[in-house]
Give the backbone structure.
Amino acid sequence: MSTLDGNSHRDAGRPYLRYTPDVEVQQPDEAALTAEILDVMARSNHVAFERHRHAVRDAHAKSHGILTGELVISDGLPAHLQQGIFARPAVYPVVVRLSSAPGDIHSDTVPAPRGMAIKVLGVEGERLLPEDAGGNQDFLLVNIPVLSFGTIQAYRQLVGLLEKNARNPAFLQRALAGAARGIESAAEAVGLTPGATLRGLARDNAHLLGETYHSMAALRFGDHVAKISAAPLSANVRALTGKEIGPVDDGTMRDLVVEHFRTEGAEYQLRAQLCTDLAAMPVEDASVLWPDDISPHQPVATLRLPPQDAYSPARRVYGDDVLSFNPWHGIQEHRPLGSIMRVRIAAYERSSARRHALNARPRIEPTSIEQIPD
């Protein structure tokens, strides 16, 4: 691995951007926009609390499964991938939460992006947040490769729309998603690429275990900058990719997860897509898709989830009311990057503190997989 202009590394003929703090650029009025976003999120969250008389997350409120398993770091990775927790072969216990993206509990009949939050236990390294005493690393992934609100300015505009749409009855939300799918198809028919917001609204209700999940925004990858993804690896979940799931009711996604893991496990390949060019692969605009032909997704680990009871009452309560997932729960070598990730420093902490206080539940960062209920 050689240095190029002091700012890149090269492997197999590809230059990889070297991480330095100046890959991030503070945005105009970022502090004021962050405060406004947090206020809108708090209002929406209060509406959800009053509706359910129970506090839920500001985002990804509805869970579909709480799983335990292991993350196996691959042996023999090339030097440019031996970064952070992937620096050496290891097996880490993990907790995984599958969810839907909205910050309220909606029927599964309303199409929505799906999430996969991975908590890797027992990770050593300098913590991102001084108050984070836990030795864990969280990766928060969604089944869309880019964020529809890729900059803090765009997010400020969007949260108002989402706040209004969250109050719409379910049939109106379904109509909005259906219209978005029609517009998306029309755009593709004339050779246009639908925007990230349109892709998000137009999500179909495909089988969530067959989806590929993405960090969407960038993070530090040791010496480099990357996006992380988890793709179906075992044949049983690869067979579910794009699978029509038939009639959908309020709890279909949960039922699919529970039924699968009753008798089968699942494996996903964790991958890193390293940044090679900040112009083509920006850090500060997460709505821009990083091209695969410039930098492919490279395998770094295997996520293994054995058969289990994915949604027992004890697990549901623990996963929804006790556990927290936060991209800032982690080590400096995987620092979240970009204005959207910087908003999350305050947003996730405020949301978690409010949720635990309103539900009179302790905030517990697990130190052992045995703490996760069966």
